[in-house]
Write a structure and sequence with these properties.
The structure is a homodimer. With about 240 residues, the first copy, chain A, is an alpha+beta fold. Helix content of chain A is about 35%, strand content about 20%. Chain A is built from 7 helices and 12 strands. In chain A, the strands form 3 sheets. A 5-stranded antiparallel β-sheet of chain A has the order 1-2-9-4-7. A 4-stranded antiparallel β-sheet of chain A has the order 3-8-5-6. Chain A starts with 5 loop residues before the first strand and ends in a 6-residue tail after the last helix. Chain B binds a DNA duplex (30 and 30 nucleotides) through helix 6.
Chain lengths: ~240, ~240
DNA sequence: CGTCGCTTTGATAGCCTTCAAGAAATGTGG
DNA sequence: CCACATTTCTTGAAGGCTATCAAAGCGACG
């Protein structure tokens, strides 16, 4: 299936992201069946591939812990970061389009993911899990769209503020402090994903650090003035 | 369900986009059942809403004919175009995230769409249509991601060329001439979707028209030098 | 024929990219 | 544990591209 080792997974009942995943609406009894269907990856180290572009896509994944990035290679050799994925979020759905992954997924640090094998999906329908999966996919879709709207803004400050705002929402949904963001990605990855140069990203973050809007501590970014960030980002009507 | 009138639909067997939709992998017998599950909208006129932001999202849609745009309203009053949708493409999937549409869908001209009622999905699973739906969703996902990668480019020429390149691919998939693109949207809508000003879009298109790369004829855009466009757009490795 | 909306074209200013170099952090070998 | 090499991040200055403001051309429609 892919490069990573899978094992019988640790159990949805104990999963920290259970409330966000397929298990969300299932009964305790159904959880046991889900445990037989879903496979969790062994803990992956920084830089390890969950799958590579071109691999057969027999499954897609839900992040259980850690953060993954997805990348595509450009014709001139460097890589383009298409997304960052946090616990409870879907990775690799696009592979089901033609049975091959079009991008590669890489762990940004210690991380685990659960494989949802496509061939097993009918068993999940039978459990009544279709609504959960559809909701998970729809949330993914909404998130992707919000990112795209944000990306189409041309000013760097708006893009970065919007990205951080979305990250705050995703972090809050996980039950963590939304003002303390886990950002294990490099400036280069971040810039690539935002479609900016790393110098520009660095400049904007430095400016915000000097004005007390944020505080950066290597791999975590603390939001000191959330409202300042929110007012910089694009506002959508309720 | 929404603002539009639905009627028992015209039959998947006769649908021009049958090969792209849920019906793709179904047997003739199953098609008849699908006809009972899916509802086609009455022909909609330019400007009509398929659904509005805030409406209950009991279904999502597949475009049968024409083109739709989806929009969100910004806090300062104007609208932002989040997508254009051609026959065989999914609209409104994001509504399933919380049961309410977060954006509005509007016909750009005479158009029809088929409603896939979420409550009926188990009946489609039973037909063996789950694989088709997943593939449809995955193609949608892949398309969205390609658009986002394209959008993150900062140069206007690259963004516009990439958008046209994607539109060529989508048009070709429908069985139409990929060098003759249906573009019923206004320059304002196009610019909004691309995250550029309409002046900038106009300038780039004028430049390409003068250099013989394209030819614009009101609502259709003819590509005269596809390679010139492809080389301007972002290249991804195979 | 005139009005109105949409599109095209023009000139200036602001922002981001590019090129370049220095600072900080990370990793490695002694 | 420290010194050194390498990578990553930050800062600076100049140029290019897009946004903005402004106005003219074009088409649709009454």
């Amino acid at each position: 299936m892919s490069l990573i080792s899978l094992r019988h997974h640790e159990g949805c009942a104990l999963c920290p992201t259970r409330g966000l995943c397929i298990a969300r609406d299932l009964s305790e009894a159904s959880l046991g069946v889900l445990d037989e269907i879903v496979a969790t990856s062994l803990p992956m180290a920084k830089g390890e591939y969950l799958y590579r572009a071109g691999d057969a896509a027999d499954a897609w994944y839900v992040v259980r812990s850690g953060v993954y990035k997805t990348i595509v290679d450009t014709a001139d050799g460097d890589e383009y970061v298409t997304g960052f994925y946090y616990p409870g979020e879907i990775v690799g759905l696009e592979g089901a389009a033609d049975g091959r992954f079009g991008e590669s997924a890489i762990a940004l640090g210690s991380a685990t993911a659960c494989a949802v094998v496509i061939a097993n999906l009918p068993r999940i329908w039978a459990l009544g899990g279709d609504r959960s999966i559809l909701r998970l996919i729809a949330e993914h879709e909404r998130n992707e769209k919000a990112l795209r709207v944000n990306m189409s803004q041309s000013r760097a400050e708006v893009r970065i503020a919007g990205f951080l705002k979305l990250l705050m929402e995703r972090t809050g949904r996980l039950g963590f402090d939304p003002t303390c963001l886990a950002m294990p990605m490099s400036r280069t990855d971040l810039a690539s994903h935002l479609g900016l140069t790393l110098e520009c990203v660095s400049r904007v973050l430095s400016r915000w650090r000097r004005s007390g809007v944020i505080d950066t501590d290597r791999s975590t970014l603390r939001i000191l003035k959330p409202d300042a960030l929110r007012s910089t980002a694009l506002h959508l009507a309720a």
